[in-house]
Amino acid sequence: MGKRNAFDEIMGFSGAAPPRPALAALGEWLADTPEHELRRRQEAAETTFRQLGITFAVYGESEASERIIPFDIVPRVFLKSEWDRLSEGLVQRVEAINAFLDDIYGARRILDEGVLPADLVLGNDQFRPEIAGIRPPHGIAAHICGIDLVRTGPDEFFVLEDNARTPSGVSYMLENREAMLRLCPELFRELRVAAVDSYPDLLLETMKSVAPHGAGPTPRCVVLTPGHYNSAYYEHSFLADSMGVELVEGADLIVDDDVVWMRTIEGLVKVDVIYRRIDDDYLDPLVFRIDSALGVPGLIAAYAAGNVAIINAPGNGIADDKAIYSYMPEIVKFYNGAEAKLPNVETFRCREPSALTYVLENLPELVVKLVDGSGGYGMLVGPTASKAEIETFRAALIAEPQRYIAQPTLALSTVPTMADQGLAPRHVDFRPFVLSGSDGVRVVPGGLTRVALKEGSLVVNSSQGGGTKDSFVLMDDGASGSAQSQSADGQTQTMGSMSQNQGGAA
Amino acid sequence: MRLAIDHRTLYRFSAPQRRLVQMLRMTPQNHHDQTVASWRIDVDCDATMRDAHDGFGNATTMLYVAGPIDAIEISVTGEVVTSHSSGELHGTNEVFPAALFLRATAATRADPAIARFAEDTAGGRATTEALHRIAQSLHDRFAPDTSRPKPGLAAGDAFAYDTGTARDLAQIFLVAARHLGAPARYVSGYRLSDDAGLSTPHGWAEAFVAGVGWLGFDPSVGRSPDDNYVRVAVALDSTGAAAVAGARLGEADEVIEVDIGVSESQ
To answer: Which InterPro entries match (chain A) (predicted)?
Structure first.
C-alpha cells in the first residue's frame, strides 16, 4: 500500500498551505493571527473552564486527580455538503440502533433470522434480561446517541464506536463554542457557523416528546445524577440548568404505586421523564445491584408499568457493545433495508479463529481493543507500542480471544493544533450528538472534537492526554473569498437568524 | 396432589422506617403439572400492591408502604394442584431461548474445582443421565444445612464446605451444568417435606438438554422435583429468583422471621 499523507481538514491532503479552497478564510486567519495571540486566547479559555469546574477524573492514577481537558483554539470545520451527507448516515444508524433495541428486548427477530449469532447477544452481559419485555414509551430507547467517528478524507467517515448509554461530552461542545465566540469573534464574521446553543432546548423537547401518554401537556422532566463526586457532575448540573429542570439524586425520588415522585419543599411532584446519568447497575437496587445506594427502589417497576420514560433506556449497552459493533452494517441493513451509509472501521472479531490468526500475525499494524472496555483503557495501538506491550497483548489474546477485537490503523485526519513548536497537524476524532424523540431523529450541527495532542498519537481519549476543539458546521460551502475587515467593536454583524452570533442566544 | 402453602415473613425494624418498597416473587404460575387453585398475598398494614412480571416472566408484586413502620408481616396463602412428568417441564412460560441460561453471574461464576467435578462425574457430556449423576453426587457429597443460606456466598466458595444449603447445592449444580454446555437456571419455590423443621424457602435447579427440554433437578435431595414441589420463580441465580427484593428508607437493623408451612390439603 502506498503511504499517503493524512488528510488535513483545513490544509487538505498536501498538509501545508494553501488551505482547501473553501476554507481560505480560515487559512488566512491562521496565518495572520500571531502565535502568541492564539496562545493567549487558548489560555483564557482554559482559565474559564477551570473556574467553571469542567474537570474530569483520571481513573487508574494513584491520587484522585481532577484535571481540565486541554482546549485547542483552532476549530475543525465541516462544509455544509460534507455535513449533510454525514448527517444522513448518522440518522440512518441511530434509527437502526433504536430498531435493534426494540427488537432485541422484544421479539428478537434478528436472532431468529440468523443475522446475529444468538450467543453474542444472549451471553453478553450488556443484554439485560431483567428488563426484557419492557417497551419504553413511544418505542424509543436510544434518545441521546454519541457516535464516535474518524475521518480519512473530505467525505470518508468511519464509525469507530457507538455510544447509546449515557454519552458525555456535550457540555464541551457548548462551552467550547462559548469560548470561541468570546475569544475569536472575527471567525464568526468570516464563516457562517451553525449554532449549537439550542442543544439544551432540543434535548428538553426530545425528553418531553417521549413522556408517557398519561403525562399530560407539561410533563415533568428531571436530570438524575449520581452526585458531585462523579467526574461528569459539571455536565449534569450544566444540562439541568440550561434546560431549566431539576437536578436530582436518587434520594430525591421515590416510587409509590408504580409512579415516580420527586420530593420538593411543596410536597411530592410526579415525575414523567428522567434523564439519568447513573449506570444501569445502580439504577434500581430491587432489579440490578442490590447494594446500590445511588438509584431509586422501584424505578424499573414504574418504567415497566409505562409511567416514566428513562433516558437513555436501561439495557442500551447491548447496542454499543464492541462485539455487536462489528455487525452494525448487517444490523442497519436488516432494519433499514438499505446498505449502511456510514461504514464501520474494518473489524476483526478475535472470537473467530481465522480472524485471531490474522490479528496475531499483524499485531504491530493493528489497534486491539477490549470488547467491553472504554475510555482508551485496555487498548493496544500496534504502530506506537513497544515490543513488550505487543507481547503482553499477544498472551492476552491467546488466553481470551473472545474479549478482543482488532482494527487496522487508519490514516486519521488531522487539524492544525497549537503545539510547543507552533501550529502542527494533530489527529482528531469526532463525536456528534444525535437526538431521537417521538417526532424523529435530529443531528445537532456540531459535536465534540477530540484531538491527540502528542505528535503522531492516535489516542484522543481525555484520560490518555487528549484535548478538545470546537467543531464548526458551515451553513454554506462557498466561503466568501475576500477577507472582511474587522470592525472595532466586533458586534456589527448578524449572519442570518440561524447562525451563531456573539450574543449566543439564537 | 393438592398442596396448601402458608408462607409468613415478618420484618421487625429496630427503628421506624419512613418507606418500604419491595418486589415480591411469591406467586406461582400454571404449567402442565401445576395449577394454582387459589393464591393471595396479604400484609398487616396499609400498603399498595401492583402485579406485574419481571424480565424472566416471573409473576411479581410490587409492595409500597409509607411509614412510619416498625414491623410488617407478609403472608402468602394458597393451594396448588400438582402432578409430575418425571422431572420434565411442560407448558412453562418461556420468555428466553434456553441459551440465555448459559450465562454466569457473580454467585454462579465459572469455577475450576466445580468444572473438574462436573467432568469427572458426567464424563464430559451433559446428557440427562449425566445431570442426574451430578445432582445425586452433590447430594452425597454435602451434609444438609437447613440454616438460612449465607448472603452472597458464591457457588465456588460453597463448594469448599462439607455442608450445603439447598440454595448452595443448586447454584453449584448450575455452574457444573453450564460448564458442560447445558443451560441451567435457579428455581425458587416450595417443597412438601417429611422433616417438620424445614421452614426455609426451597431452591433447586433446572437444566436444558437438547432434544429433551427443561428438566428439574434437586441436588439437596438427589432427585427430580415431583408433585411435592411448587415452582414459583426462575432466574440465572438465587438472587434473581429471590422471593423478596426490598429497600427501605431509614437507619435500622432488621430481624426477619420466616415461617413456611407446606401441607397436603384434603
So the answer is: ATP-dep_Glu-Cys_Ligase-2, CP_ATPgrasp_2, UCP005522
